[in-house]
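Hey L., structure's done. Input below.
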Amino acid sequence: MKEEFAVEVKGLTKVFGTFTAVDHIDLEVIKGKIFGFLGPNGAGKSTTIKMLCGLLLPTSGEGIIAGSDIYRESEEIKKKIGYMSQKFSLYDDLTVEENIDFFAGIYKVPKSTRPERKDWILEMSDLTTHKSSTTRSLAGGWKQRLALGCALIHQPPIVFLDEPTSGVDPISRRRFWNLISDIAREGTTVFVTTHYMEEAEYCDELALIYKGKMIAKGTPTSIRKDSMPSDLIELAVSSPFEAIEVLENSGSVASASIFGDGLHLILKNGEYDGETIKKILSEKSFDIYSISSVRPSLEDVFVHLIEKEDALLERGQK
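Output:
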């Protein structure tokens, strides 16, 4: 394993019977970076994370996590990582302090350093004055930060966060990502899955997995630049769902998708052509409120890549 990588896997594959859940994935995650792992439900994210965490043996491929081999040293990997799920992995009937003590014991934190680590978690999660409160009484944002602290209590070099902001409010999500950034700056590698596209922007690097295959990897900027045509049309129109059907059957539009109150379109020639769109819709009596060329968002990019992948599969090219 190259010294600068916290995660390095090649050809990682997992097959269940005749179903390939993860199909020859190559990944390199630089130490101290935030790596975002994105994909729709059933894409293979959770299966991949289980293999990386030493919980599931791959069918084939190779990998080193925090310096340990995923085949021969799975128990060592478990000692070197932190893990936080979207369910927070906390015990609701225990107090905040009891949860911290429990995880300190699970991770075998030396007794001499437990008070210092406990104080750090309480301060980080803003729960110093609530340490005797039961966990079930906490708001979602506090539970979230407490769960992160418990996952980091043994100071692992890498932490895996599986959709950690699911179900919390936008302000709590922003505060949580500020914490993640602080942790990464201090040297901890963060491997995070999320379905919030705006959160993907906070990651140093991203990978998109779909139907078990890696279909894009890079920085948010490079993925946008390399994966999308130069122009994207943003359109506000009456009856947007009906407009999608008309546009996709027009022969001029490669893809059309709902975005906010309106539509985002990609033309087959990849260039901005508002007049053609206006003509298509006007002939069908749609009202056009606005039309402009916009910079693609990551959501646009991922929708485009998934549609492109599906089209290739339908044509039997993959």
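The domain at 229-295 is CATH 3.30.70.100 (Alpha-Beta Plaits). The chain has eleven helices and 14 strands.

-- N.
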